[in-house]
Structure formats: C-alpha cells, structure tokens
Design a protein that fits this description.
Layout: H1 13-19, E1 28-30, H2 44-53, E2 58-61, H3 70-80, E3 83-94, E4 97-104, H4 111-137, H5 144-151, H6 158-167, H7 174-182, E5 195-196, H8 197-206, E6 210-213, H9 216-219, H10 225-230, E7 235-240, H11 245-258, E8 261-265, E9 283-284, H12 285-309
Parallel strand pairs: 1-2, 2-3, 3-5, 6-7, 7-8
Antiparallel strand pairs: 1-9, 3-4, 4-6
The structure holds adenosine monophosphate, fe (iii) ion (2 copies) and zinc ion.
Length: 310
C-alpha cells in the first residue's frame, strides 16, 4: 500500500477541494462505492475513470469488510486530480437490527482493523459454502468453487452467488436469484455474522476513522440513531440512491438535530446491481469539507493528547 498515506488524505484538504470542481463553482463527491475487491464489478481504476467522467471532485471506496482496493484507488484518483478518502463498510447490529457502518479515513495499515476484517472475510467464505449447500439441497447444482472463482476476492457475498447462478444458466437474472433464493428469509439465505455497532464504531475510531451510518433509509432503525450518536456515531449518510428527496431532507434534519456529519454516495456496485450508479448521488462540497474538517480536528485533538501523555 505504498501509494496510500495513513488515513488516505493529507495536506490542506479544504483548500485543495475548493480548487476542484465542475468548472462552474460546484464540487461534488460520491462517498459510497464498491469495487471488485468486494461485490462491485469495477476495478478501482474503472471507478476513478467513471468518477472523473461524472465530474466528481472526491470519491471514497467503501468495499465490504476490506480496504484492499484503497491503495490502487488512491493512486488512480491522484492521477486524475480527484480527492480520495479511504473507506470500508461494516455490517453491524444494534438492538437486533442490522445496520451498515462506514469507516471513513481509517488507517489502511491498522493491525486491529485488518485482523478483524480478516475474521469477517473468513465468515463470508464459510457463508458462501453454506448458501451453496442450501442451493444444492434445492437441486440447484452450483459449486462453491464456481462462486469463489467468480468473486476472486477476499470478501465474497450474496451478489457473487447471484452472479454465479446467472452465469451458469441456473437462474435468468440477478433479481430473480435474490427473489427466489438469497433474500432474507428465502431458502438459500444464510444470516451474516455481524459485529455489534458499538464494537464496530470502536474499531473504526481506534483505526483513526469516523463512523457513519450508511443508508439509514434502508435500515428501519431511526429510533436507534440518537443512542448511536450518544455512543460516538460521527455521521449519517443522508444522500443515497435509495433515498427520495424527502427522505434525504428527513435525515438532514436528524443529522442537524444530533450534530452528526452529513455524507452521501451512490452505493455503486457496477453491474452487480443492474446498472452503474456512480455519480448518481452527488454530495455537495460543503458536506465533505465538514467531514475533512472533522477529521483534521480529531487528529489535532489526538496529537494534543499524545503530547500530553508523553
Ligand atoms: P451480503 O453482504 O453477502 O449479505 O450481500 C449484500 C449485498 O447484496 C449488498 O451489496 C446488497 O446491496 C446486495 N443485495 C441485497 N439484496 C439485493 C437484491 N434484491 N438484488 C440485488 N442485490 C442485492
Ligand atoms: Fe454490497
Ligand atoms: Fe450497505
Ligand atoms: Zn454499500
């Protein structure tokens, strides 16, 4: 990961960002993207190129349970003059509800984070075996090896099973694969191991990151947001492909009330979710400048604490 400084961004970023943009004064970011290092179909270089074409000034790679693609993405973004933020999306639970937490600015070399993610990846792999075994019981002759070959990454998931089913002619479409077999409660669905949200936030924080609740509109856990904020949640993904304008406005209100940072992104998975979504959600520059400022603030406070305890 030579291309990547710890935390993935440096220098006077607010100034750097103010200089970027669409040529008409507006700057936008897409801070929720998946690559071939988890269940997306684009390489980090593809994403950077498409982000550039979409006029994005900043991007984050938020692969599930891994930061492996971040070094390449940082390099590709740098070559195109796009600001890059390291990210990863963790599956967590709080009060029996599943929620996804994104860690922005985590140190991609943080040992504890890497060790934990390795465990999540191992569970993901055994889950693929279990899902395939269930499909086999339904007389669907899919082999786990075919899924792993297609996934070709450390963080395989249900979309890879769906794609393997389609590729092998065992199911006509990705949607149908989820609908018939893989959706929660369907016969080949296997629950995913989830870290507690409090442990996930602690993991992100000890790796120098900020913890943001992804797509709250999909979590049906609005009632939990105040408690999570009290426990250290840093931000809320108010803008997301699946959020209507009304829902985004609602979460902007929640974020303002709870003093949470505002983020947004498309959650593009390339062709894994039908069509590429990158750039379809444009987070206005003001919000990611606040995100960067929060990170710099936090780093400043850490430096003071470290100096005081030395
Ligand atoms: P996993 O992490 O293995 O549970 O898989 C979750 C991934 O599957 C996420 O990227 C979801 O967006 C994707 N996914 C969930 N439901 C569907 C669906 N009905 N169609 C396509 N992708 C889905
Ligand atoms: Fe995904
Ligand atoms: Fe998610
Ligand atoms: Zn995602």
């Amino acid at each position: 990961m030579n291309a990547l400084p710890s935390g993935g961004s440096t220098r006077s970023e607010a100034a750097e960002l103010a200089a970027a943009g669409d040529g008409q004064g507006a700057v936008f970011a897409d801070l929720h993207l998946h690559s071939v290092f988890s269940d997306g179909t684009f390489t980090p270089e593809d994403l950077a190129g498409r982000g550039r074409a979409a006029g994005l000034a900043a991007m984050s790679l938020t692969d599930h349970d891994t930061v492996e693609g971040c070094a390449r993405m940082a390099q590709a973004c740098q070559a195109l003059g796009i600001h890059f933020i390291v990210g990863t999306e963790l599956t967590a639970e709080f009060e029996d509800k599943e929620l996804h937490l994104i860690g922005y600015f985590v140190d991609p070399h943080n040992e504890k984070l890497l060790a934990e993610m390795k465990k999540f990846q191992a569970v993901r792999k055994s889950r693929i075996h279990e899902m395939v075994a269930r499909l086999n019981q339904l007389n669907i002759p899919l082999r786990a090896e075919a899924v792993f070959a297609l996934a070709n990454c450390q963080s395989p998931g249900r979309p890879h099973v769906a794609r393997a089913l389609v590729k092998q002619g065992l199911c006509p479409s990705l949607e149908e694969a989820f609908e018939r077999f893989l959706k929660k409660g369907r016969r080949a669905w296997v629950p995913k191991c989830k870290i507690s949200a409090l442990a996930a936030m602690a993991l992100i924080h000890q790796a120098g990151g900020l913890a943001v609740m992804a797509h709250p509109g999909l979590n049906h856990a609005d009632d939990l947001i105040p408690a999570l904020a009290a426990e250290g949640l840093d931000g809320l993904e108010c803008f997301h492909t699946k959020h209507t304008a009304k829902l985004s406005a609602h979460y902007l209100n929640v974020a303002a009330r709870l003093n949470l940072l505002v983020t947004g992104g498309s959650d593009c998975h390339g062709f894994s979710k039908g069509r590429p979504l990158i750039g379809g959600v444009k987070l206005p520059g003001i919000y990611w400048q606040k995100l960067l400022a929060a990170r710099q603030d936090r780093d400043g406070r850490r430096a003071v604490l470290t100096a005081a305890s030395a």
